[in-house]
Amino acid sequence: MRSLFLAAGLALASLGPAYADLHLVPNPGGALAGKTVVFSPGHGKMLDAGRWRYQRGVNFGLREDIHTNEIFILYLQRYLAGAGARVASCRERSFQEHEVIVRLGGPGASETGVWTASTSAPDDYGGDGYRWAATAGSTTATATFRPDLPAAGRYPVYVWYTASANRARDARYVVHHAGGRTVVRIDQSAWGGGWVFLGEFFFRAGTAGKVVLENRSTEAGKVVVADAVRFGGGVGPSGEPRWREGAKSFLTYKGYPAANGEVTIRPVYGRTLAGGSTSAWRDDYRYLALHTNGGGGTGISGFSYSNGRTASWGSNGPAHYPAGLAAASDRFRDLVQAQVLADVRALYRPAWRDRGTHRMNFGELRESRNMPSTLLELGFHDQADDAALLADAGFRHDAARAIYKAILRSFLGAAAVVTPLPPARLRVENLGGGEVRVSWVPTPDPLEPSAQATAFKVYTSRDGRGFDNGRRVNGTSTVLRGYAPGERVFVRVAGLNAGGEGLCSRVLGAQVGDGGGKLLCVDGFDRRYRHTHDNWRGLWTHDYAVEHLLALGAAEPQAPIDSAENEAVASGDLALADYECVDWLLGRESSVDRTFDPTEQRLVEAYLRGGGALLASGTEVAWDLEAKGGGLAFLHDVLGAAYVRDDAGTRSLRLAAGSPLRGPVGTLRLHDGTQGYDAAYPDVLRPQARGARAALAWEASGAPAAAVARETPYRVLLCGFPLESVRSDAARAELAREALAFLLPAGRTPPPAPAGPVAGGGSRGSPTPGSGGPPSTPPASATPGATTPTTTAPGATASGGSGASGSSAGAAPSPTGLGPGGGSGGSCALAGGAGDEPADGGAWLLLLLLALLGCRRHARRRSGPGAPAPIPRPQPSKAGEEASPQLFLSTPSGTGTG
Question: In Å, what is the CA distance from 437 to each residue of 344, 564, 585, 806?
Answer without folding.
Answer: 37, 11, 21, 19
